[in-house]
Specification:
- The structure is a homodimer.
- Chain A is mainly α.
- The first copy, chain A, has helices at residues 5-19, 27-34, 38-50, 75-82, 107-122, 127-130, and strands spanning 54-57, 63-66.
Chain lengths: 155, 155
């Protein structure tokens, strides 16, 4: 269970542009900054422009800027509009599902609830909340985010 | 963002065994029931046995049964122990991460929080909660689970 590189790079473009307000950025600047492939980024930028998150201009002084304030860019919306695979299990898609117990199975309902909770957290944040500012403290360490595993229930 | 077929099939095996208590099931019975590949299921069953969720016996009257009561099998634990990719973004893995802003970026913290929330929902359920019984009502329809999309924040 992971987000695609496509979504990851889309978020990086938004973060870069949000951190450089008022400056027109080029694809080369962003690929250099993150050390990522230009080919991947061209598609990502095209899609972000089509979705209305950024404005691109061609020409010698061309480049891209955010199309709106970072406070207006909701992270749940970005992920839901860009991530191509949000069907956690085969049974999420009635058209392609082959599992014969899908109509009665309660597993799907549990995973829908989990996905809703996941998106609910993202929905609480905008691009403005995650921008890296110069006076930013280092991000919390991984140990603060360890998810406890209950190997077996005790009830 | 989706779970692997491996995890999907692991859950199906557990659901099948939980729905047939006291009966020794064969791989053929489960592949026939779900219409899935035997090759895939052999690996899935071997792993479930190694993790202690099922007991397999060889021979003419061999097969598999759950190693514990369905109430003892927590869904969050199953997913965390079986799903091979729980790193939502490249920066989740310090060893393989290449993103240069990972140490300062706040995105990781938001996604950790979302993942924790996702697993928190699964942690509320055991295999017993999702078993299909004969008097089961059809599962809730998809429309009850639609996640509202906030295209742009209004604040």
């Amino acid at each position: 269970m992971h987000l695609t590189r496509y979504t990851d790079y889309s978020l990086r473009v938004l973060i870069y542009l949000g951190a450089h307000p008022g400056k027109r950025a080029t694809i080369s600047q962003i690929t250099d900054h993150f050390g990522i492939s230009r080919n991947h980024l061209v598609k990502v930028v095209h899609n972000l422009a089509q979705l209305g998150y950024i404005i691109t201009t061609r020409g010698k002084s061309g480049g891209m800027v955010l199309a709106m304030e970072p406070e207006k860019i909701n992270l749940s919306a970005v992920v839901q509009r860009i991530e191509p695979h949000l069907d956690l299990l085969e049974c999420f898609d009635n058209q392609s599902n082959t599992c014969p117990i899908a109509m009665q199975c309660k597993l799907k309902g549990v995973f829908f609830q989990a996905k809703r909770s996941f998106m609910g957290v993202l929905n609480n944040y905008t691009l403005a909340d995650i921008l890296v500012s110069e006076d930013t403290q280092p991000a919390p360490s991984l140990s603060e985010h360890i998810i406890p595993i209950t190997l077996h229930s005790n009830n």
